[in-house]
Design goal:
alpha/beta; Rossmann fold; Arc Repressor Mutant, subunit A; 10 helices; elongated
Length: 194
């Protein structure tokens, strides 16, 4: 698709380390990466983007994300101009996506409108962004229930519970780390909000 719009693709990589290596090898005019990359699908892509900006100041980078994650957006935007933070839903509008890429290559900053709204609004109630079902799931997590027990209580499948838990963690701005238990942090946020 990118080639149809005049972009030359120098490399396509499978993980963050390959991304860093490819940038050294090809010196691209633009890097497009997902926040989550193998092997753990946590924040390897974002960490690689920040590292690349440190090693190659001004390198235009567009990061794609499934959800609005305020701390990721703020961290990337803080690296200077020629950056983009887009939700993957925006990629579906090809003309808008290509325009965003061209803006970043030209030195501009492009931030998804939903991200801007979240960064500006920062609701007082940290649970305000959760759906009714997500609040129900979080309430059951706070009771100490497992995903299977939550699924049984709400009459939904284990994968559906897992999806709700992932959405809750993303909406509460709890990125994956090795240092914290995100479910516990989500419960603490829930209890503080009550």
């Amino acid at each position: 698709m990118l080639q149809r719009f005049g972009f030359e693709v120098a490399a396509a990589v499978g993980d963050a380390e390959e991304l860093v290596t490819a940038v050294k090898e090809h010196s691209p005019d633009l890097v497009i990466t997902d926040i989550k990359m193998p092997p753990t699908f946590k924040d390897e892509g974002l960490l690689a983007a920040v590292r690349l900006r440190k090693d190659h100041p001004g390198l235009p980078i567009v990061v794609l994300s499934q959800y609005v994650q305020q701390e990721y957006a703020a961290g990337l935007i803080g690296t200077g101009d020629a950056v983009g933070y887009l939700l993957k839903d925006r990629v579906a509008d090809i003309a808008e996506f290509v325009a965003a890429l061209r803006t970043v290559v030209a030195g501009g900053t492009v931030v998804d409108p939903d991200v801007v709204r979240r960064l500006i609004s920062r609701p007082q109630d940290p649970l305000a962004g959760l759906s009714t079902r997500e609040r129900e799931v979080l309430s059951l997590i706070a009771e100490g229930r497992s995903n299977s027990a939550i699924g049984a209580a709400l009459h939904i499948s284990d994968p559906a519970v897992g999806k709700h838990v992932g959405n809750i963690l993303a909406k509460l701005g709890l990125p994956p780390t090795d240092d914290t238990n995100r479910r516990v942090l989500a419960v603490l946020t829930y209890l503080r909000a009550r």
